[in-house]
């Protein structure tokens, strides 16, 4: 049985894909902004391939196999809290917890509510507020109040399912930044960088879905072609027989007369 077929419950195997790069993280504009937000060198994206079809019901097996795979252990990068340097995983993980992160949002209009609720002005400037703290973050504008303070009057602008979306998580991560973040006064740099990175990270999923849909469409069109061919053959056969019967019906009386004559001849012989 080939890997990935129904009934195949083998261990997932992974391979590191160092040739797969994420250009969104290395453009001059993104690099400049990440530096300003104290995130340059502290955000990393890596790609790994796997050998079986992913099944949702095997999510926990998939994650555990990932962290136990030798290729992952020797290549997956982690940022050390003590040294601030990137290190490899280096050891097997004993326990994991998988959390579903939806990627259903495909438009930046998702954030239009920030304008509608006067969190951001029409000219793109973020509305300021009195300083407060939500450890370890300094909150000095309405945007960070919406992102962090559950008792904020506008916190419900984004529902809990909205906040679980990968697009929102990425946006929030960039807005809050690192320890020495220099916040933006306008919203556009956050939105532009979020869009750029999001498209780069999730486009492979969209490509796979598109290819799968094309394969399904191709199979459907093939089925339609087969059905059309069968119907055409059936129609042609019936039409041909109909024409033959129409031609043959003109001779039925003659054949019946000849049959009767033949039978009478045999009787009187």
From TrEMBL:
Sequence intervals crossing the membrane: 220-242, 248-268
This protein's UniProt keywords: Cell projection, Cytoplasm, Cytoskeleton, Membrane, Transmembrane, Transmembrane helix
InterPro entries for the chain: CFAP300
Pfam family, one: CFAP300
Cytoplasm listed as a keyword: yes
Main location: cytoplasm
GO CC annotations, alphabetized: axoneme
UniProt-annotated location(s): Cytoplasm, Cytoskeleton, Cilium axoneme
Keyword hit for Transcription regulation: no
Annotated family: Belongs to the CFAP300 family.
Chain's role: Cilium- and flagellum-specific protein that plays a role in axonemal structure organization and motility. May play a role in outer and inner dynein arm assembly.
Protein name (record): Cilia- and flagella-associated protein 300
């Amino acid at each position: 049985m080939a890997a990935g077929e129904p009934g195949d419950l083998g261990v997932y195997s992974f391979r590191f894909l160092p040739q797969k790069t994420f250009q969104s993280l290395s453009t001059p504009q993104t690099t400049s902004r990440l530096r300003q937000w104290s995130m340059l060198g502290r955000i990393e994206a890596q790609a790994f391939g796997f050998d079986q079809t992913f099944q949702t019901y095997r999510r926990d097996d998939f994650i555990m196999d990932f962290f136990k795979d030798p290729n992952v252990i020797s290549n997956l990068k982690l940022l050390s809290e003590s040294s601030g340097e990137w290190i490899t995983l280096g050891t097997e993980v004993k326990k994991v917890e998988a959390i579903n992160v939806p990627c259903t949002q495909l438009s930046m209009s998702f954030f239009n509510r920030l304008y509608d609720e006067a969190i951001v002005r029409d000219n793109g400037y973020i509305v300021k507020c009195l300083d407060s703290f939500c450890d370890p973050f300094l909150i000095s504008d309405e945007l960070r109040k919406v992102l962090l303070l559950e008792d904020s009057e506008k916190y419900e602008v984004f529902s809990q399912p909205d906040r679980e979306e990968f697009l929102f998580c990425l946006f929030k991560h960039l807005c809050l930044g690192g320890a020495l973040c220099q916040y933006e006064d306008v919203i556009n740099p956050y939105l532009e960088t979020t869009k750029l990175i999001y498209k780069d990270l999730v486009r492979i999923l969209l490509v796979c879905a598109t290819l799968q849909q094309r394969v399904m469409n191709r199979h459907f069109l093939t089925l339609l072609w087969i059905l059309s061919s069968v119907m055409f053959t059936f129609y042609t056969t019936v039409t041909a027989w109909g024409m033959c019967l129409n031609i043959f019906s003109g001779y039925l009386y003659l054949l019946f007369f000849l049959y009767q004559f033949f039978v009478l001849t045999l009787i009187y012989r």
